[in-house]
Write a structure and sequence with these properties.
Bound molecules: pyridoxal-5'-phosphate
Number of strands: 14
Radius of gyration: 21 Å
Shape: globular
CATH class of the largest domain: Alpha Beta
Number of domains: 2
CATH architecture of the largest domain: 3-Layer(aba) Sandwich
Largest sheet: 7 strands, mixed
Strand content: 15-25%
Distance between the termini: 25 Å
Length: about 350
């Protein structure tokens, strides 16, 4: 039976990207060697990193003066690298969920942290809007897509201080104005590659402004100078990321990814709103296109386990909601075909008809 992969992360990748990766594991570029057993400095692998960086810049329209890095440690290590490299006195954070909170926690070890607003009191079901960012902060940190709660900032904010964004789960799902940010980062395992590589887009001239000592490996400048090769980078995930970037370009770029994301999200939210058995959990204006969260309507609460079983039998995978939200979460990343979203919708309709 066909499986419809709604996993939140690691998550679905385009089938051809997986096949190209499998091929390179067996024989990298006809070299007779696996991509797993060559030097990252080999003349064959350098072009992989170079092309991945070039495609990042092209697809996201990154202005001059920014570097693209591929590092280890996940988005979680960036939570501490950000303040290490950018926080001299004071930083502002928007608390929109567990990941935002974790990022904020690390920053507190480096300077004053202002939580400009939080939606914790409502289990992060919306994104706060009425707040002011102090003018004297070194940066304002946001999480553009809140993977667990299904809320998303779908446009770049207008604030008068440099922004830093965790875009782990919505990178390449819409065009972004990179010039508003001094740093954009994320774990690649949601929308780009397998787990193991972290992407970082950093504005070169924003670096070198803090007075503390930064350990070599945690200093972005080290990795800019080393071209992401200061130490051994995660070779295989970078190889896969390159295949995904080529795939995005061939499909029509981020504008097309956005069009598809809107189409898929609109389809599924329309069914959630129509179907009497389900309700969406996120505030309508903040609904994520990437992670679509819903629960059983109160009068059908006791059918939750039954719907899960029914959907699983129909090939749905990974639709269980995060434990802090409950219910269901259908992650619809770039690689998710419209047909799979339709299959889930059919499932919901059929379940409704049965009751
Ligand atoms: C998954 C996720 C993280 C954590 O990423 P790791 O690479 O596992 O550290 C951080 N932020 C967001 C928004 C995420 O979705």
């Amino acid at each position: 039976m066909k499986k419809h992969n709604f996993n939140a992360g690691p998550s679905i990748l385009p089938r051809e990207v997986i096949e190209q990766t499998a091929q390179a594991v067996l024989d990298f570029n006809g070299s007779g060697l696996s991509v797993l057993e060559i030097s990252h400095r080999a003349k064959d692998f350098q072009p992989v990193v170079d092309e991945a960086v070039a495609l990042f810049k092209e697809l996201l329209n990154i202005p001059e003066g920014y570097s693209v890095l591929f590092l280890g440690g996940g988005a979680s290590l960036e939570f501490c690298m950000i303040p290490f490299n950018f926080l001299e006195k004071k930083a502002a954070y928007l608390n929109t969920g567990v990941w935002a909170k974790k990022a904020m926690k690390e920053a507190k070890g480096f300077g004053e942290v202002v939580e400009v607003a939080s939606s914790a009191e409502a289990t992060y079901t919306y994104i706060p809007k009425d707040y002011t960012v102090p003018a004297d902060v070194d940066y304002f940190h946001i999480t553009t897509n809140n993977t667990i709660y299904g809320t998303e900032l779908k446009e770049d904010l207008d604030v008068n201080v440099p922004m830093i964004a965790d875009m782990s789960s919505d990178i390449f799902s819409r065009p972004i104005d990179v010039s508003k940010y001094i740093c954009i980062y994320g774990g690649a395992q949601k929308n780009l590659a397998p787990a193991g590589v972290t992407f970082v887009i950093v504005k070169n001239e924003a670096l070198g402004k803090v007075s503390r000592y930064i350990p070599t490996m945690l200093n972005y400048q080290t990795h800019i100078d080393g071209g992401s090769m200061f130490n051994t980078p995660p070779v295989l995930p970078i190889y896969t990321a390159l295949q995904t970037l080529r795939w995005i370009k061939a499909q029509g770029g981020v504008k097309e990814m956005e069009r598809r994301a809107i189409e898929k999200a609109d389809m599924l939210y329309a069914e959630i709103d129509r179907n009497k058995m389900f309700v969406g959990t996120a505030a309508k204006e903040d609904r994520s296109r990437m992670n679509i969260c819903f629960v059983m309507a109160p009068e059908y609460k006791d059918l939750e386990a039954e719907f899960m079983k029914f959907a699983t039998e129909k090939g749905m995978v990974g639709i269980k909601g995060h434990r802090s939200v409950g219910g269901f979460r259908a992650s619809c990343y770039n690689a998710m075909p419209k047909e799979s979203v339709q299959a889930l919708i059919d499932c919901m309709k059929e379940f409704e008809a049965m009751h």
